[in-house]
Amino acid sequence: MSESYFWWTEEQKKVAREVGQFVEENFTAAEEYYWKKEFPWHLVKRVAEKGYFGAGIPREYGGMELGATGSCIVAEELGRLYAVGHVFVVSMLAGLEQILKYATEEQKKKWLPKLAKGDELGAVCITEPFAGSDAANVMTTAEKDGDEWIINGKKRYITGAGVSDRYFIYAKTSEEKSDRKQYAHLTSFLVEKGTPGFSLERINPLIGFENVPNGYLSFEDVRIPDENRIGPVGKGWNVMMAGLNFERLIAGAVFVGTLKDIIKLLFHYTQRRVQFRRTTDRYQGNQNEIAEIISMYRMGRVFSYYCAKEIDDGKEPMINSSIAKMVISEYVRKAGQKAIQVMGGDGLTKFYFAERLMREGKIGEIVAGTTDIQKMIIYRFSSMLPDYNASMRMRWNEDINAPIISNADSKFKGFEVNEENILKVIAHDYKVNPGLYMTIDDIREDIGTGRSKTRKIVESLEEQGLVVTYRDRASNIKLVKATYVGLQKAFPKEYYEWYPEWYADADKF
Ligand SMILES: Cc1cc2nc3c(=O)[nH]c(=O)nc-3n(C[C@H](O)[C@H](O)[C@H](O)COP(=O)(O)OP(=O)(O)OC[C@H]3O[C@@H](n4cnc5c(N)ncnc54)[C@H](O)[C@@H]3O)c2cc1C
Prior knowledge:
Blueprint: H1 10-36, H2 41-50, H3 67-78, H4 83-93, H5 96-102, H6 105-117, E1 122-125, E2 141-145, E3 148-159, E4 166-172, H7 177-181, E5 186-192, E6 198-203, E7 214-225, E8 229-230, H8 236-242, H9 244-253, H10 256-270, E9 274-275, E10 278-279, H11 284-312, H12 318-343, H13 345-348, H14 354-366, H15 371-383, E11 394-397, E12 402-405, H16 419-432, E13 438-439, H17 440-447, H18 451-463, E14 467-471, E15 477-482, H19 484-490
Parallel strand pairs: 1-4
Antiparallel strand pairs: 2-3, 3-7, 4-5, 5-8, 6-7, 9-10, 11-12, 13-15, 14-15
Bound molecules: flavin-adenine dinucleotide (FAD).
Flavin-adenine dinucleotide binds next to β1, β3, α14 and α15.
């Protein structure tokens, strides 16, 4: 049984034990389905009977109400059943958070109990032939016709295509440039299997998706009632974003259990494989690889559940959910590669699941937003955090005769604000950070003056060739540094010199 964390509720711990037991009992059956390349309908039905599809759904709509933590617990275990895990994830992602946040009470009552019971599988349909990472670029259209919408277009890479009954799609409802600019051109809908004009176009043969159907969908004048619209017209992007943190978290968590399985396999295998009259677990290199996999498993797992707790506490962990999804996918791919190395040729055969783990990890690095896109999110949102944007000014410390990070005022603070002194501030900064420009705010802070006055003086210094500026597209000054002429004018050359004590005077010139 996997370790439970101290912050889990008794109910979450109980479900973890039960779903763990369920997976142990069905592990062999899942492997059989994998080998037969057959969709595991029977296992999916068993998961549905247990109510696990309703892990994150409130009780009033027929779910287990175990929150993001409970959903992760179920995903972690079901991921060990391979196709079942993938189907569980997409079915959860096919509108759970979106319906909870955007649907009307009537729609919630209609869709959520079906989702919770799992007697209908769901698929999420964002990607199109011409819209991948650029998810807002969907070309599928939805046109209003009385109380109905007519959908035309194509979706691709849809996990659960064909076997799902419920398809959560995003379609374009406005061609206005201004709507596109404000991400107000999309609307989300639920389309049911069997609706005339809605068909399965193709099944993708993908690495790592042996018995998981993933395919293309075609919509030709598909008429759906307005009741199937989730959220307001033009708010599709917001609906998509509503479930993002939960989706990324679950997309990562589904792989966590497989990391533990590979650790078990490696201990088992290396204790039974003998080379050079020693079992291969005695080789330090193999131990190192296994130790690294264990570290990845434990780090990835604890971080997932930390992130789940944040969601359960009502936070929107945009950065952390991207990190969770990104690092776990990477861990799984790396763990697969390491496991293959530890097992040698056996690792490369399909009889052990080391090579499958590597392929699964690679899928994780593409699906639900590629690793590059996660990095983009992590960087962009972090760059807005005041925590990471606090001042790190360096000041010249006369006692130790070196530049050090300091909160002290600049030695120019309180000087008269004129061209001569502002040039000194900028030139002095060359001594402190020779390779860096200063912002207008840095200069203001150092001497103590207003923004427009500083700008004017800097512009005048620029005209005289004493400073150079770096400007934005609107031609506003962003950064300033002194030219060599400016440096000479501000201070004598000795001002900028610095030598360590051990450096011989005789070698100076
Ligand atoms: C196994 C599998 C299952 C999937 N299941 C579903 C599903 O159920 N529903 C669904 O809607 N979609 C699904 N997808 C689609 C998946 O979400 C997309 O494949 C993914 O978002 C990447 O889009 P793309 O494949 O078109 O690659 P592209 O967007 O064409 O990207 C190609 C490369 O360019 C990089 N790139 C693109 N834009 C940027 C940028 N701005 N900055 C830096 N790098 C960039 C990408 O990181 C990538 O490396 C699935 C995909 C796979 C492989």
